[in-house]
Amino acid sequence: MKEIFAKIFGQSSQPEAFFSPGRVNLIGEHTDHEGGYVFPCAIDFGITALARKISDRIIRLHSLNFDKDYNAPFEIAIDEINEKLTGSRTWVNYPLGIVSILIKHGYKFDGGAEILYSGNLPDGAGLSSSAAIEVLTVKIFSELFGFNIDGVKAALFSQQAENEFVGMHCGIMDQFAVSMGKKNHAVLLNCSTLDYSYAPLELGTCKIIITNSNVPHSLVGSEYNLRRQQCEQALADIQKAKEISCLCDLSMNELDEYSSCVKDPVNLRRARHAVSENARALRASEALKAGDLNMFGRLMNASHVSLRDDYQVTVPELDVLASLAWEIPGVIGSRMTGGGFGGCTVSIVEGEAVKSFIDKVGAEYEKQTGRKASFYETGSNDGARRI
Ligand code: GLA
Description:
Order of helices and strands: HEEEEHEHHHEEEHHHHHEEHEE
Distance between the termini: 14 Å
Radius of gyration: 21 Å
Number of strands: 12
Bound molecules: alpha-D-galactopyranose
Structural class: alpha+beta
């Protein structure tokens, strides 16, 4: 990357190196935007960047993943960053969104930056490549310009950039996980209060296997925002009868008690997913603490069923992957992970069974769907950092 950096940006001074992981959510899916718990970990795959500060107030960006057809970097004056770009090279909207949000928060840019990015996160797979590039970019500016932005703020600024600049109304989970991840731990995050704790990810002889359905999650923007609206409507209906600030304030019993308040049966199913998933996330983190991996696995499986039947964000390919995994001896649990509508499943698999898992799921998935799955084994990693 150093050689390419020098070729693209010139050799005036040595760049510094940064890395941000992606994330996989173990359980607690579609609960972050409803004020509930999530339980993700940062993974071994991610995005590396080389960056240096320059005296001109100009941002120059280049990606080894997306800019193969360009031999010059993307370039823009800081004062010209107003709204997201359309057309080609739209990946730059993530770093530009960060610059725009930092300016909004009063950070002063007494110069610009040249940044080269290179990632090994599969694109569109729901492993948070967008959160990774956002948090990485905050980290870069924080270090190069002495802004001193801590990890929680970096996550919040990144979420704001995605909500306001890119236009995806995501919750805080992805940015928080890639910013605040800790090696060998998962993060239990309360998305209402941002209170968090680390749980040792003690899986014994088991491995975390991510299986990419290779169905790109293209609908995720519009369908995601629709699910959020449906939950908001259910919340508004219940708030007429009970004082709560978010759906995940409710227990399953309370949701049941107030279910007649929710006018639209579809919205009730959406709410039922959020409330039941919140309870599952808490139970699962406790099961892990108590060393009860089998309980953890059963809760992962139940999470998939709820995302399939109540929240309806799986696609047939993800359902095939999960069902195949459930049948294989040595699989502790398996579920879709991330926003849904394509992307990946996450499975906890006994070390000895990993090979047969990959062989069997791979072959049968191809037979049933005509698509090839990709498999990644990952550990849990630290959050975004200078390397
Ligand atoms: C996407 C969003 C997150 C979260 C998940 C679903 O990854 O970016 O905020 O809502 O979907 O759990």
